[in-house]
Write a structure and sequence with these properties.
By secondary structure, this protein is of the alpha+beta class. 26% of the residues lie in helices and 6% in strands. Strands 1-2 form a two-stranded antiparallel sheet.
């Protein structure tokens, strides 16, 4: 069960400090609901599939197919792989690519979430 609340900044701060809230007889975890837009067509961040003209890219293995057609036994993040290619950095400075593009632990996902938080006015 999920509940999404929009609150004033003061209530938001209080809920985030509590970390859990009782709803009915259920003790529910409190999390900040922020997402980074990731295209379901090319798996890149910053746009939606409806506005994408790039080729299809699997978010699991970075192959040229849809995720439901994927039969790969490995994961590879297309976004981190492209970042490493653009950087042209030594091996010890490369970003880990051994995760799916949809992973919450993806460094680029975390970077995009941080940017989204910076655009929100949390002040009271």
């Amino acid at each position: 069960m999920s509940v999404i609340l929009e609150t004033d900044p003061c209530t938001f701060d209080m809920l985030m400090k509590m970390k859990r809230v009782l709803i009915g007889w259920e003790l529910c975890k409190v999390v900040e609901a922020i997402t980074a837009f990731r295209c379901f067509n090319c798996s890149e961040y910053g746009h939606k599939a409806s506005a994408c003209s790039k080729p299809h890219c699997c978010p699991k293995c970075a192959g040229p197919h849809d995720a439901k057609e994927c039969s790969a036994d490995f994961v590879k993040c297309v976004n981190c792989d492209q970042l490493n290619k653009r950087r042209n950095a030594p091996d010890d400075n490369l970003v880990d690519i051994c995760h799916a593009a949809w992973s919450i632990d993806c460094p680029l996902n975390m970077k995009n979430l941080k940017r989204a938080r910076q655009r929100i006015d949390y002040s009271t």
